[in-house]
Design a protein that fits this description.
Elements: H1 21-34, E1 42-46, E2 61-64, H2 70-80, E3 85-91, H3 92-98, H4 100-109, E4 114-119, H5 154-160, E5 165-170, H6 174-186, E6 191-196, H7 208-212, E7 215-217, H8 226-233, E8 240-246, H9 275-284
Parallel strand pairs: 1-2, 1-3, 3-4, 4-6, 5-6, 7-8
Antiparallel strand pairs: 5-8
Helix pairs in contact: 1-6, 3-4, 5-8
Length: about 280
């Protein structure tokens, strides 16, 4: 029987008091316990930033890599061992700026992993620069005249790629976030959850109260209706829908690769004895 306490870790947390990351940190072990996943069955992959510190605060397998480069590492881990539940955590800067190209290709592949993005619409670790999702006209250290570009809409991009699962939640909506993460993890294929997460230090527009006045649970929506999902993903302003927005039907990438379809790499026979021969053949060329 898996319990939330199985994921408990006593390390000191280096987030600001009131940070929305705490809500996500609390939700992930609750979601994993809900679906019966034990710590040894899970790998959480992250890059650089405040959000990617999250796996350091859980008793779980962890791979902490470079800024924006978590998705390729997570892809390799899943392809090597299908039995592992692979979760990627990162921020909007880490995932949509530095890691934007990897995000696009992960969507294209529909790899069987879960991607949880802590979207606080600002750079938190590097002290408040504008990120790809910062609101227009918002003034930051890098945009003294205000943000002049339109924010990136990751939900629309994910729906366009026809991945398996697209959702949005809010770090302050505890049970909703737990249920959304649990459903994302159990969905076969690439599952993407954009989590609205206030930064109390550097984003004084999109605050806890600002989100609470706007986030609205989705009701009466068919997530298999791609056109309806597209329209729902464009909603932003006085009402921000949270919940499951889209479910695609494409097969997961790892089920398409003949060499690992039936047996993952970690369970395949090793051929160290053939390496000298292969090396000689290679050198001869």
């Amino acid at each position: 029987m898996v319990d939330v306490t199985d994921y408990k870790c006593d390390r000191e947390i280096a987030w600001c008091p009131g940070c929305g990351n705490f809500g996500i940190l609390n939700a992930i072990p609750r979601a994993l316990a809900k679906i019966g996943k034990a710590p040894h069955e899970v790998v959480i992959v992250s890059g650089i930033g405040q959000a990617p510190k999250l796996p350091h605060y859980l008793n779980v397998n962890t791979f902490n890599g470079l800024h924006g480069r978590s998705l390729p590492a997570a892809t390799a881990i899943k392809l090597a061992n299908h039995d592992l539940t692979v979760i990627v955590v990162g921020g909007d800067g880490d995932g949509y700026a530095e890691g934007g190209n990897h995000f696009l290709h992960a969507l294209r592949r529909n790899i069987d992993i879960t991607y949880l993005v802590h979207n606080n619409q600002i750079y938190g670790l590097t002290k408040g620069q504008a990120s790809p999702t910062t609101e227009p006209e918002y003034i930051t250290g890098t945009t003294p005249w205000g943000v002049l570009t339109e924010p990136f809409n990751p939900l629309v991009t994910a729906i366009s790629a026809d991945i398996s699962f697209v959702a949005r939640s809010f770090s302050g909506a505890g049970d909703h976030l737990v249920d959304t993460i649990a459903e994302a993890i159990t969905q076969r294929g690439f599952s993407f959850v954009d989590i609205l997460q206030p930064c109390v230090s550097f984003n004084h527009l999109n605050t806890h109260s600002w989100y609470r006045e706007r986030v609205t649970p989705i009701e009466g929506h068919d997530p298999t209706d791609r056109r309806a999902a597209w329209e729902l993903a464009h909603k932003w302003g006085d009402e921000i829908p949270i919940g499951v927005i889209y479910k695609g039907s494409r097969p997961a990438y790892d089920s398409l690769v003949p060499a690992i379809r039936d047996t993952p790499l970690v369970k395949q026979a090793r051929f160290e004895d053939k390496l000298p021969m292969l090396n000689e053949e290679f050198m001869a060329r």
